[in-house]
Amino acid sequence: MRNWIKQLEGSPIDWLLEWSNPSIRCLALRDILEKGEKDSEVEAAREAIPSSPIVSRIMAKQSPEGCWEDPTSPYLPKYKSTYWQVMILSQLGMGKTDERIRKACRYIFRFQHDQGGFLCYGSEQARREYEYLRKKGKRLPSLDKWAERQVYEQQLSCLTGNVAVALIRMGFASDSRVRKALEWLVKVQNEDGGWLCPYWGAHARDTHGCFYGTICPLEALSEYPKEQLSAEMRSAIARGAEFLLMHRLFKADHHGYQVINKSWLRLGFPWFAGYNILRGLDVLTKLGYTQDDRLSDAVQVLLQKRQDDGRWMLEATPTGRMQTNIEAKGRPSKWITLISLRVLKQLL
Questions:
Q1: What are 124-134's pLDDT values in tens digits?
Q2: Cys bridge to 116: 154, 180, 280, 341, which one at CB 3.0-4.6 A?
């Protein structure tokens, strides 16, 4: 085993390589043991992913049209509709070589705004809401004007970042629509280097970047092929990374560097619109930020959470709200352990 793992007591590598979870096995071979994409073990693990229990349970609930739940809204119900399944499946290692994935991605591309961002719902759902509010006696402008504004406000940086990174992982990096989404994210980056959603009514008066809104675009940019990054994208990465680093990933950059949100210290999976220090560390190390001392506070928290057997626990997950649970909360987590080792491999 490499020198970096010797600095840790105990090794969970054999546990991660178990065939019961081919998604984890594939990533452990590739990211921890540095096996190439063409390695026979990596290929065998990848080929087993589509028929794995978790993937099979999710795919069994896909409609013939390629979506999950309400066909007019890829966003709602939260964690069960199409966007969320695409996010999960991309993290599990599914890709566009599978026709079911291509069908799901064709469906979600229908909800991409002309400007590039992905929408919570389309014009049909907007019309439904309009009629509902009219019946309730609310005074509204014309349907066309109201629907146009409502649809526009559904472009969210966190959602677009999550959808973009899922599409990149699934093999759509060269698709012009994905690049359009990334270019929109660069365009709407906040002045402080983070991202927020001032075009969304609930945050119209916000000025400070949002950690949730920031980590998702940065993750998408971290997965995009480096040779395809434009100068504007590279600048956005530098500014976004600095936004996280100036906060030590979880602390206020004023008031004595107090913890901003204690929930950010809980390690969770799958990754959706939420934020935690492990996600911040994983994205920043992928972007090449491995020598910055401002990572040390988050790294120390991560190391303190390591169990005696070398594993990490799953501390947060939307149990019972997804199409299927991925892992049990409060139990040793292969996903958290894998990602933690991937981070520490870059830092130790």
A1: 666 666 566 67
A2: 180
